[in-house]
UniProtKB/TrEMBL annotation:
Signal peptide: none annotated. The keyword ATP-binding applies. One of its GO terms (molecular function) is ATP hydrolysis activity. Residues 15-47 form the ABC transporter domain. It comes from Lactobacillus delbrueckii subsp. lactis. Keywords: ATP-binding, Nucleotide-binding, Transport. It comes from the Bacteria. This is Glutamine transport ATP-binding protein.
Length: 47
């Protein structure tokens, strides 16, 4: 679970106040245009 997660690259605010909850066994797909922060979100989730 994420609550109000933010990620910065220098001065660039890549993720802004992200809230996300995924239940055990739930299958999730993350879609969006190039540069939307999909990979950044996954990397942040994985630590």
């Amino acid at each position: 679970e994420f609550k109000k997660v933010n990620k910065f690259y220098g001065d660039y605010h890549a993720l802004k106040d992200i809230n996300l909850s995924i239940d055990e066994g739930e299958v999730v797909s993350i879609i969006g245009p190039s540069g939307a922060g999909k990979s950044t979100l996954i990397r942040t989730m994985n630590g």
